[in-house]
């Protein structure tokens, strides 16, 4: 459930008419709802509480790194999952304490490790043997100890889009589960390393529980073996990945309560602190991308709704063939007609939807692209020298611009001429 709904035919974000924001900020822009963020956080944490599980929720900040979004979740008690020094800096700056931060990713560099060690993060999720050795060297050099979990690749098919599936043996992520015993034994011998847990993340936008169950059963068995080998595994990080409804005509993904019940059933008996790393589930449906129709172009075969947002602002449809609901900001009573909804970028891939049935639209009308809070603004680029669009956060009847529209000076001014061209 989100807080973008209609009142007398006009779309509101909580208690603010979306049109008012468009008038003041211009289009396109991202609009996030505080109440929706809060609701999603509470539904998820309550589901684990009801199961009596000891939970550390680490929001996967990659989904939406705006300081205001992270700070909203930090105020609710959230931790963070980060995958770069930049994300770690953003999480710390937004008020997430280091002792609630886990660091994932296949390519942590020496500098990044040193920064995270000095910050005192909760845990490194280590993804390879070379990374383990590097971390040991960096920690020893600094006189610090890195608490680690290995990310286990359970070789399970997440049944999601190939580009966001991470738990098969052919993927670059994690260490193969069959090699885990040897790798844990190696870690136990290294200076600067304290083995505390095990981690698994099999992919994103999972719409069924079975792949999670399969992966969790595999790692539960592994934890028992590793404990028998003498490793003190106290934390189990289950990653993120629970999907959200994008297309209202599709079957809904499992509710967080069913997910938490399954977690309890499969790993509840292990007496581990459970860490989860949800991204999309918290922020996906808490955001929309608002755009204005520039032209309605009648083609020979199809009608194009040309809007001022493009693939550089929201890349999910072109990159993953993702479905995003598109709705008019002003409801109309009229028979729907099919449109190809496209942006201004000079690529045919710059298409948000094909043959989408919408009420007839005119130049100047506003549309909202829904479920754009996750992997939207964070994946934006300035392709075609288009400025990064503003982000707005709504809270009840107030809104604030939480990132202003980039200026052309900022965008073009980043380039430098070499001496031989500067004269
Ligand atoms: N933990 C790890 C280690 C991850 O790699 C990810 C996402 C998450 C947690 C959060 O997953 P979530 O709960 O959001 O599914 N850009 C793609 C999604 C990429 C996901 C990458 N990793 C998209 O727009 O669908």
Give descriptors for this structure.
single chain; 423 residues; alpha/beta; Lyase, Ornithine Decarboxylase, Chain A, domain 1; TIM Barrel; 13 helices; binds ligand LLP
What can be said about this structure in brief?
This protein is of the alpha/beta class and 423 residues long. The protein has helices at residues 18-25, 34-50, 67-75, 85-93, 110-119, 129-142, 180-189, 210-228, 256-267, 280-283, 316-320, 408-412, 419-422; strands spanning 4-7, 10-13, 16-17, 29-33, 55-60, 79-82, 101-103, 123-126, 146-153, 175-176, 193-199, 235-237, 273-276, 287-298, 303-307, 326-328, 337-342, 351-358, 366-369, 391-395, 398-403. Helix content is 30%, strand content 25%.
Helix content: 25-40%
Q: Please give the CATH architecture of the largest domain.
A: Alpha-Beta Barrel
Helix-strand category? alpha/beta
Count of runs of 4 or more consecutive helical residues: 13
* CATH homologous superfamily (4th level) name of the largest domain: Alanine racemase
Tell me the name of the CATH class of the largest domain. Alpha Beta
Uncertain runs with pLDDT below 50, 5 residues or more?
Answer: none
The share of residues in extended strands comes to: 15-25%
- Quote the distance from N terminus to C terminus: 59 Å
Mean pLDDT: 97
User: Measured on Cα atoms, how large is the radius of gyration?
Assistant: 23 Å
Number of beta-strand segments? 21
Coarse morphology: globular
> Remind me, CATH topology of the largest domain?
TIM Barrel
Bound molecules: ligand LLP
Characterize the biggest β-sheet.
9 strands, mixed
Q: Indicate how many domains the architecture comprises.
A: 2
């Amino acid at each position: 459930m989100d807080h973008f709904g209609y009142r007398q035919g006009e779309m509101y974000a909580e208690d603010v008419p979306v049109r008012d924001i468009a008038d003041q900020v211009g289009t396109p822009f991202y609009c996030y709802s505080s109440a929706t963020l809060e609701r999603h956080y509470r539904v998820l944490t309550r589901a684990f509480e009801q199961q009596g599980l000891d939970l550390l929720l680490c929001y996967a900040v990659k989904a939406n790194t705006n300081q205001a979004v992270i700070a909203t979740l930090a105020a609710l008690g959230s931790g963070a999952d980060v995958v770069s020094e930049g994300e770690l800096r953003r999480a710390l700056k937004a008020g997430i304490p280091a002792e609630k931060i886990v660091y994932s990713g296949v390519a942590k560099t020496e500098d990044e490790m040193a920064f995270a060690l000095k910050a005192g993060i909760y845990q490194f999720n280590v993804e390879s043997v070379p990374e383990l050795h590097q971390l040991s060297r960096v920690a020893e050099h600094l006189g610090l100890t890195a608490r680690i979990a290995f990310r286990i690749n359970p070789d399970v098919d997440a049944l999601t889009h190939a580009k966001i599936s991470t738990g098969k043996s052919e993927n670059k992520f994690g260490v193969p589960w069959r090699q885990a015993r040897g790798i844990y034994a190696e870690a136990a011998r290294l200076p600067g390393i304290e083995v505390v847990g095990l981690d698994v993340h099999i992919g994103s936008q999972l719409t069924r529980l079975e792949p999670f169950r399969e992966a969790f059963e595999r790692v539960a068995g592994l934890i028992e073996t590793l404990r028998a080998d003498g490793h003190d595994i106290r934390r189990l990080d289950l990653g993120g990945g629970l999907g959200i409804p994008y297309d209202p005509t599709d079957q809904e993904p499992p509710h967080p309560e069913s997910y938490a019940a399954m977690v309890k059933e499969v790993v509840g008996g292990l007496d581990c602190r459970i860490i989860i790393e949800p991204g999309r589930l918290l922020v996906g449906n808490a955001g929309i991308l608002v755009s204005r129709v520039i032209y309605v172009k009648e083609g020979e075969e199809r009608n194009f709704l040309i809007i001022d947002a493009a693939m550089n602002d929201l890349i999910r449809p072109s990159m993953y063939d993702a479905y995003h609901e598109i709705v008019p900001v002003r409801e109309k009573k009229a028979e729907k007609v099919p449109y190809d909804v496209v942006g201004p970028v000079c690529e045919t891939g710059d298409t948000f939807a094909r043959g989408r049935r919408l009420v007839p639209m005119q130049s100047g009308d506003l549309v909202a692209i829904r479920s754009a809070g996750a992997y939207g603004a964070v994946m934006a680029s300035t392709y075609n020298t288009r400025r990064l669009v503003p982000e707005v956060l709504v809270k009840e009847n107030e809104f604030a611009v939480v990132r202003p529209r980039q200026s052309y000076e900022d965008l073009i001014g980043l380039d430098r001429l070499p001496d031989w061209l500067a004269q």
